[in-house]
Amino acid sequence: MSYETQQSPVAPMATSRLWTAGASGGLSVIIMLVLAVMQPAVAGWMVMGAVAVAFTTWFVNRRPVSGAIYAPLATESPVEAKGDTGLMTDVFEASFDPMMIISGGEADDIAGRRILLANAAARELFPVSAAGGLLVSVIREPTVLEAIDDALFTGEASRVDYVSGGAQERHWRAQVHPLPEREGSLFEGQGRPEALVLLTLKDETDLRRIERMRVDFLANASHELRTPLASLSGFIETLKGHAKDDPKARDKFLDIMAAQAERMSRLVADLLSLSRIELNEHIAPDGRVDLSRATSDVLDAVSVLSRERQVTVEADLGIGGADVTGERDEIVQVVQNLVDNALKYSSAGGKIEVTIERDRTLDETFQTRMADSTRLSLVTPDREQGARYVVVAVRDHGPGMAREYLPRLTERFYRIEGQKSGERQGTGLGLAIVRHIVIRHRGALSVESALGSGALFAAAFPLAPDRKSVAAQPIEEIF
Fold it and tell me: What are the beta bridge partners of residue 193?
């Protein structure tokens, strides 16, 4: 592409300088000659001055004025804009959004859609090399494949929203844009250029989670806070009425109001915690946590409560080898919620068993640990070759649960019928929080239960890599 240059509309003409200098010099000469006539005493000096000005003006402007000062930047030949191929390649590779260039093949040959180029973000997300591969082996979403075909064979650009599968749902917006055909990219010697398409994927998981978090929080808060707020309002009216002069009734009502206010505070705290975890669920943590030590800290914290309820806690935590990949605060919350749940359903004189199992495969994490029980997987991670896990199992010897209740245990505010009152009051969010934390950690969660024998929850977290093997890795492989 050439760029044509034009004279600036505000630039002076090339001859304007000569005209200005000549006019100024001539005017000066005339003035001096007039003064010489009017003042004969200084006539000689005036004439000499006029001659000097005339000579200077002629000397300065004796050569034609070059227009180079005001000339356009390029007058001899137009400039051709040449794209920097290396720079464009670097931009394509450095993009944070997965990008792929796809060739069309024959219109009726679905398997002929090939990925010609894939940037670093696409190679990290999909099992594809920089040189590309078959499209159907990477993307199987029908709406995206249909949009790619439309762009290849009709030249129509489009946007498609879809949700990827797996343990962690991710929301994507696929942008498909046709590219000009390239003569250098031919159909296996058939002699005609291929249609090309640029596919860009934008991760909108955070935006969708924020929208859902806001809606769920308002719905859940309005539903669950209605009961304690109604209780508070009723007790306040009672205290303003006939109970205001009854100290015994007043103290009783105030205690109930304090308990309701505390329940509302715990409910809001759990809702905020759950929303925060769901928001970051698709981002795997990369910290290192000693699961055995974290479990020990939780048991120390609940020791006072367990003694008050006369419940014995038996722990088999072992020593070493229990480092997992995760975030300590969230892992502590998982163990805390499971132990609290076991304490709620343990009667006085009962027993809780907490164990740590090391270096387990995914199948071993789901093994049966209670005899004559019903087992159900609540969270199953994507299978990865060679993945190993550390399991924390918490068992109580309470009333247990029937099999029909197990699938709904991790739903928000779900409580088993007949177990909603008494000392077992809670927010109904404990196991929901556990589930989402385990999902974020790419772990596993299962439950076993038998009526009259209690329940057992087992949470598995990925085993952290050995420190020596990490230290021995080249820096470029780590990052």
Answer: 186
311 close to 395: Cβ distance less than 8 angstroms? no
Residue 3 is which amino acid?
Y
Burial class (CB in 10 A: 0-12, 13-18, 19+), 162: middle
- How many other C-beta atoms lie within 10 A of the C-beta of residue 329? 11
Q: What is the pLDDT of residue 452?
A: 87
Rounded to an integer, what distance in angstroms lies between the CA atom of residue 222 and that of residue 220?
Answer: 6
Q: Both tokens of residue 186?
A: 């031919």
Q: What whole-number distance in Å separates Cα of residue 369 and Cα of residue 375?
A: 9
Which residues of the chain fall below pLDDT 50? 1-6, 8-12, 14, 16-18, 64-81, 185-191, 420-422, 475-479
* pLDDT for position 468: 60
Neighbours of 312 (CB within 10 A): 13
Most distant CA atoms of the chain, gap in Å = 138
Q: Copy the structure tokens of residue 271.
A: 């809702």
Q: Do residues 324 and 392 make contact, with C-beta atoms less than 8 angstroms apart?
A: no
Is the separation of the CB atoms in 385 and 436 below 8 Å?
A: no
pTM (2 d.p.): 0.56
d(CA 25, CA 13): 20
Cα 311 from Cα 349, distance rounded (Å)? 5
Q: What pLDDT is recorded for position 457? A: 95
